[in-house]
Amino acid sequence: MSELDADAKPNILITGTPGAGKSYLCERLAEQLNFDWLDCSKIAKEHDYIEEHDEEYDCPILDEDKLMDHLEPLMQKGGNIVEYHGCDFFPERWFQAVFVVTCPNKTLYDRLKERNYNEKKLSSNIECEIFGSILEEARESYKADIVHELCGETAADAAKSLKTVKQWYPNIYNKLHA
Ligand SMILES: Nc1ncnc2c1ncn2[C@@H]1O[C@H](COP(=O)(O)OP(=O)(O)O)[C@@H](O)[C@H]1O
């Protein structure tokens, strides 16, 4: 198993329920930190890392092994922001920080309605947010001190999140290369 290259920037995972505001934040973060933004859903679609399509929830089922093989050399180089609406299958060693984007239910509902999600998909995602499932998944999968929650509701929240991550970055870089 490969480690992070010497002098590499850290890798960050941005996770959360669909619609919570991951992409919105990743786009800004990648630009401001000069990181590569790896949107796993997009990569999986582009390279056909899809096992099958779940008809009930109208969503693709990821071929996680193929995605991992694709990401491994990129992660070794560091400086990546990985985005996905799940986090328990990535190797723990990949990430120096995990940020879980959360969103109040009313806003999330409106965002998912706008995406024309079917009722089943919509209610399962709202339930996921109500129960804090992704936050729990992150806390179960990574060391507690690298998991942070960020609110993805408003532009002001995003500005605050950007500030939080930018403050975190030099500390973790120095720790990584001490
Ligand atoms: N912090 C925010 N402030 C205002 N609008 C946001 C914010 N985050 C996301 N949005 C909007 O909500 C919608 C869903 O956001 P997106 O980032 O695509 O969610 P995700 O990547 O988690 O599925 C988009 O229309 C986006 O512009």
TrEMBL record:
* Compartment(s) where it occurs, according to its Swiss-Prot or TrEMBL record: Cytoplasm; Nucleus
> Which Pfam families does this chain map to?
AAA_18 (PF13238)
| CC per GO annotation | cytoplasm; nucleus
GO molecular-function annotation terms? AMP kinase activity; ATP binding; ATP hydrolysis activity
Q: Where is this region: LID?
A: 114-124
Which residues are ATP-binding? G19, G21, K22, S23, Y24, R115
Catalysed reaction, written as an equation: ATP + H2O = ADP + phosphate + H(+); AMP + ATP = 2 ADP
Q: Name one GO biological process term.
A: rRNA processing
The cross-references to SUPFAM superfamilies, in alphabetical order and at most eight, read: P-loop containing nucleoside triphosphate hydrolases
- Region of interest (NMPbind), ranges: 39-62
Uppermost EC category: transferase
Instruction: Give the superkingdom in one word.
Output: Eukaryota
Keyword annotations of the record: ATP-binding, Cytoplasm, Kinase, Nucleotide-binding, Nucleus, Ribosome biogenesis, rRNA processing, Transferase
Give the Enzyme Commission number.
2.7.4.3
Q: What is its main location?
A: cytoplasm
Q: Which residues form the signal peptide?
A: none
Family listed = Belongs to the adenylate kinase family. AK6 subfamily.
Family matches, as HAMAP family:
Adenylate_kinase_AK6
Note the subunit structure. Answer: Monomer and homodimer. Interacts with small ribosomal subunit protein uS11. Not a structural component of 43S pre-ribosomes, but transiently interacts with them by binding to uS11.
Function (record text): Broad-specificity nucleoside monophosphate (NMP) kinase that catalyzes the reversible transfer of the terminal phosphate group between nucleoside triphosphates and monophosphates. Has also ATPase activity. Involved in the late cytoplasmic maturation steps of the 40S ribosomal particles, specifically 18S rRNA maturation. While NMP activity is not required for ribosome maturation, ATPase activity is. Associates transiently with small ribosomal subunit protein uS11. ATP hydrolysis breaks the interaction with uS11.
This chain belongs to the protein called: Adenylate kinase isoenzyme 6 homolog
Q: Which organism is it from?
A: Drosophila madeirensis (Fruit fly)
Task: Kindly list the organism's lineage.
Answer: Eukaryota, Metazoa, Ecdysozoa, Arthropoda, Hexapoda
